[in-house]
Amino acid sequence: MDIRIAVIGAGIMGADHARIIAQELSGAVLQVVCDKSTERAQAIAEAFGAEVCDDPLATIARDDVDAVLIASPDQTHAALTLACIEAKKPVLCEKPLATTIDECFQVIKAEVASGRQWVQLGFMRRFDPAYLEMKAVLDSGSLGNAVMMHNFHRNVEAPANFTGSMAISNSAPHEFDVARFILDGEYSAISAFQPKTCAADGSAAPVFMVLETQAGQLVNIEINNNAAYGYDVRGELVAEQGAVSLNSPVHSRVDTRLQSLQQYAPDWRPRFAEAYRKQNQAWLAFIRSGEISPIASNSWDGLMSTMVAEAGVEALATGTRVSLDLPEKPALYNK
Ligand code: ISE
């Protein structure tokens, strides 16, 4: 039997997930598209033969919905995820799990009380072939222990009024999560800086962070959401006996007039297309088996990235190095 999926949120990511479910996820059907704007939902639903609903809680409760993908605005994530846990419906929630630490704990508490995991979090980079190869090389032991990880995360242009603290709480969680995943450890402290050469209100400025891990490694992250030239994510893991760098999927190069040109993606969707597909396939397997993929991000990972983001925002605002005091992990989340 096909798994009937509802997508809540018909924005840029909701539309992309709806397309993946309808066209690229064998064994799943896009059953409902839900958005406050029925017009937006209608446009997607019509393209893929789904139904439309404008009430997220009613969507979650529907008998013809087996699982729910949440791609609505960030501040709605926790409440909708809690409703899915209550209804015992597996959920793939776009990052972040919640906008506050307190809400992350509420989700964790509900999952622990129900005795099983229901939530996969949309940190899709864990399914990107380049990051997975980086992790496989490190885990093979051939390069010795990890020492540092360098990360660059660039967007063409930030939305209006995008600030440094938003770069930390909205963009950097991808790096917070994937570096934790690759290094297989937790952070102990974070410092954050902005170059002085950019707009006085900090709105256009990149943010540069240095994180320390409990194992003593250093992780640096540049978030530059006004990089102008393209969507560009780079990473290099430095270990004792060598280093591993990410390659972006580029299928061709144009050579002309003494130049060699390679295209950049305009945003993250083409760069991480394979990761999104693999992530959603893993979620489908989770829906069927009840067992979350060991590489997928779960509610605990969501809490960790929200805690680091909150500390990073504080580090930037105060100009200080902020230490992290992490809670104990419930056994439910041991992998
Ligand atoms: C954006 O907020 C996202 O969530 C995307 O996944 C990320 O790649 C992009 O750079 C962010 O700004």
Could you please describe the fold and organization of this structure?
- By secondary structure, the chain is of the alpha/beta class.
- Helix 7 runs antiparallel to helix 11 and helix 8 crosses helix 11.
- It is built from eleven helices and 15 strands.
- A seven-stranded mixed beta sheet has the order 12-11-7-10-9-8-15. It has a six-stranded parallel beta sheet with strand order 3-2-1-4-5-6, sandwiched between helices. The protein has a two-stranded antiparallel sheet with strand order 13-14.
- Helices cover 38% and strands 23% of the residues.
- The site of (2R,3S,4s,5R,6S)-2,3,4,5,6-pentahydroxycyclohexanone has 6 residues, from helix 7.
Helix amount: 25-40%
- Outline the biggest β-sheet: 7 strands, mixed
User: How much is the radius of gyration in Å?
Assistant: 20 Å
Order of helices and strands: EHEHEHEHEHEHEHHEEEEEEEHHHE
Number of helices: 11
* Helical/strand content category: alpha/beta
> Which ligands are bound?
(2R,3S,4s,5R,6S)-2,3,4,5,6-pentahydroxycyclohexanone
Mean pLDDT: 96
Taken as a percent bin, the fraction of beta residues is: 15-25%
Number of strands: 15
- Cα shape: globular
- Rounded to the nearest angstrom, the distance between the terminal CA atoms is 29 Å
Low-confidence parts: none
Q: Report strand order across the widest sheet.
A: 12-11-7-10-9-8-15
